[in-house]
Amino acid sequence: MDFMLTEDQGALRTGMRTLMERRFPRAALRAVVDAVGDAVGEGTAGGALDRSLWRELGAVGFFALRLPQAVGGVGLGLPEAVLAFEEAGRALLPGPLVTTHLAAGLSATGLSVAGAAAEGKAVVTGLDATGATATTGATGATGATGATGATGATDAVLVEHLASADAVLVLGEEDAGMRPAEEVLPSAAAVRSVDPATPLHRVRGETRALRQRGTAARLRREAALLTAAQQLGSAARTVELAVAHAGERVQFGRMIGTFQAVQHLCASMLVRAETARSVVYAAAITEDPGDVAAATLLADEAAVRNARDCLQVHGGMGFTWEADVHLHLKRAWVRAEQWQTAAAAEEELAARLVLTGAPCL
What is the DSSP letter of 98? Predict the structure, then answer.
């Protein structure tokens, strides 16, 4: 399988990186963290999205990337979406990017909010009513089982950026649907998030009025893959941060990058990121549930372990909010609990091994 990017794919990735560096540079990221820091410290969800940035993403086709050109989309596929989300993860772009992108894909159903999502005029967050997001990044929160009762209601799950959203994409066991955020917010409770740029609310799921029949599995699978792409972007960025710091920081009269222990840390980070990249790209082509599960596992591991190793390279400075690696680690923890946890991915892989009847050594 050839994973070399085509000329158009390379141009897409370069364009996305240029857009992120121009529209959401490090100073903008720090401004978001500073703005929500006090609110998070008080135990509130806090943190409003930059609507102008959201509309600009819509204008360049970020959310309509996979819509047909006949309906105003870009007409590209899942591999190209993975490249775009990898760049978003690299820049630590906040917001429910994945669910707004998925909601835009429902425009063919005639949902008005789907068209607005495609244009970046609506923010759509997500609620996995099966409970897959029950422990997402909440500190001091206990996970919910997500079991669906006879009334169609589920135990409480966590929803990101609910206060800034216009709609909520709800995924049930088999079906999906959209609910206005203003209907969900009054009964939601703000909880403290480990990532200051990802405010969270605890919400009780409701699955009785889901009208998109049989779409939940596909949407959940694509959400997991696009989240893995963001983890991949974060993992690759922390490699760059670690190598750059190792080439500048001097201790005992030498750059720390000349020490073998630091070199081994950086080399291991690069191996993790490139291994995850190959699997994430493969899953984008095959769209196979087993490949998506493998991509989730490797991308989550690369993002979290690379951030930890990058923090070690930075030394004591890495433990402070002034170091960006700190933000990468917090976001990686949150994403690792979204859509498909490590346990769920392992169960998926195990089930497929049983189905294929592959002999065990």
Answer: H
